Amino acid sequence: MTDNNNAGSKSAAKRRRSPVARIFLAAFGGMLLMGIGFGGWLYFGKPDQPVALRPPETRRYDIMVTRVRHNAMRNGVLAWTVDAESVGYSRTDGDARIRKVNAVFYGNRSRPVTATAQEGRISTGSRDMELLGEVVITDAPYVFRTPRMAYTGQAHSIAANQSVSLSGKQVTVSGDSMTYDINTRTTRISGHVKGQFFLNGNA
Fold this sequence. Notes:
about 200 residues; 12 strands
C-alpha cells in the first residue's frame, strides 16, 4: 500500500512539473535551433568578405602615387618618358619603384623606342632604370622580349643579361644577352645565338 502511494505521489509530482519542464525544454530547443541556424548562416550562407588590408607598397614606401608620368632630360634634351600605374618612393634607398610601366626612349632619330614591363626601378640620382617582368622593347619593325632589361642614362643604352629574343618581318634571333644603343639603333646579341633569316617569306 505504501509503495502504491509513493508511486502515485511521484506521478503526481511529475505531472505537476511537466508543464514547466516542457516550457524549459521548448525554450532550450528553440535556442539550440536558432544557434544552429545562425551558425549555419555564418558558415554556409554568408559570402566571403575579403579583409581590407593596405597593400604592402603603401607601408613600404614613404610616398605612394598612382598614374604618374615622368620625363627625364639628358644634356638638355628629352631622354625618356615613363608612364606608370603607380610609383613608390623610399628615402632609404632613394629609388622609385614603378608598376605597370610604359617607357619611351628618345634618340637621334625621330622615331622613339618603347618598352613595357610589369614593374621596375628608377634611380633618382643617375636616372638609370631597370625593368622586369615580361619586358617588350619595340623598335619598329623589330620587337625584343626579355625577362629583364637595364637602361643606362650616361651611355643612353639598353642591356639585357638574361635570355632575349628578337623578331621582325624577315628575321628571328635569340641569345643569352643583348646590348642596344638608342642613338645609333645598333643591336648586339651574344651567347648561344640562334637565328633565322627569311627571304621572300622563306627561311
